[in-house]
Amino acid sequence: MTTTSITLRRRGVMLIVSSPSGAGKTTISRLLLEREPGLTMSVSVTTRPRRPSEVSGRDYHFIDRGEYDRMVERHELLEHAEVFGNGYGTPRAPVEKALAEGRDILFDIDWQGTRQLAETARADMVSVFILPPSFAELERRLRTRAQDSAEAVARRMAKAADEMSHWEEYDYIVINEDVERSVIAVQSILTAERYRRDRQLDLAPFVASQRPTG
Known about the structure:
The protein is an alpha/beta fold. It has helices spanning 25-35, 65-73, 92-100, 111-120, 135-145, 150-164, 179-194, 203-209, and strands at residues 14-18, 39-41, 45-46, 61-62, 77-83, 86-91, 104-107, 125-131, 172-175.
């Protein structure tokens, strides 16, 4: 006896993962991309300098302020925000193409960008906010990763309280006590969102085809 696999077209999901710096969203995002073959990263543009470990085109598209401003003026960014004096934004064209083709896109953006996307693309997005177990643990993680100066760590800690105050604007909240459990939680959210009725484009004709005839 053979079984037939049913494949229905669906629209892609914009999965947004946000958190204060150091709360774990980068690690969680990396593991999600490794474990979810149908998920790709939205690569933002930014005007900030490239860190030694970063690769242009993979981590960010590093552009100058003039080019960034022109993209904003031409409405070529789905969302954009200023963070620590640098511009960040999501290019519109590749995201819209991916969603139409049924591919899921992961966004690593802050609450400002999430709020903008909620105004323009609410039906396509699902948002997850990652909270640290405590402020003390957040500070420990920032100091341990040794990517920023002591002054930069102090700035990020000061900003963390403001970032965390926006948790109510998100669809789901995950407290990152354990990275493995947090990744599984976000995977479960993504799986459920893929099965939402309004994202499955061929449901109406499929159901109609199952009705008895005669």
